[in-house]
């Protein structure tokens, strides 16, 4: 394991963590709402995160890809790849909008400020960051990850050991009082992994392409995927243990921190803003890069315009946007998963055929 592997793992996790489970609302709808069986769902998603992260990072490194479009074209061909790219870009923009809405919800729930305040603040931060060059953006996103991990681990660990109801009662409360994205926990787990892979794919492809060692890139993808799986599992258990006290709350993770300490709640709100910020930057970067080359004046103008439009769209509300955009993006992500799995099987078959040929010659 080297520095590049660790950087890839941290960047992979930081891009996904803001959109995937920082607020707790996502985990609530995809896992906790199914009750105890939702814990198994987190394990399914964790395995998929590791496998898919490894394949994307390695493929990008082998290609020395400059953008996710190159990887999409390799997976799907030029025509279908273009279609997938357009659809994916549209939904990634939707995730960026959700992040702006999430920022508004944080400042409303924690500080009783209008949602527009948090949205405008995040808009300014994202636009300012997108005016930096690509390497600085990646370094900035990677740098905030250790702080975010520490906060999530602290909150969830305390919550797991402070539950005050029987497991049976919590299971019943989770199933009866919470909306889920689909009627089946396994489909929910697949959707969760697929939409998060779609979210992390553009940035992971760019980072992998900047790495000249495919093996190091693959290790980074695996580490990031396993780290995400572990965090999702912990957060899901923490939410489940306190599900009877989290009804109707848009930011469950923030509510859990408030039960520990008012000061910790403030610190957690800052951490959540950082998580959402890291994902918002990744999403708007990927979308803007679809229309302009990064590090150019045109890119900065496109970024500013798209983020401002996103601010207006974010006024639709955080929970509603999560329940609408994420499942739809999950179905788009299924196409990515199938294409990556097919590419992996094809490469394994080619490697076996080559080895068999070498054995026959010798």
Automatic annotation (TrEMBL):
The keyword Nucleotidyltransferase does not apply. The lineage of its organism: Bacteria, Pseudomonadati, Pseudomonadota, Gammaproteobacteria, Pseudomonadales. The keyword Transit peptide does not apply. Keywords: Membrane, Transmembrane, Transmembrane helix. This is Membrane protein YkvI. The chain crosses the membrane at residues 34-59, 80-101, 113-132, 144-165, 185-207, 219-243, 263-287, 299-319, 325-345. It comes from Pseudomonas alkylphenolica. It comes from the Bacteria.
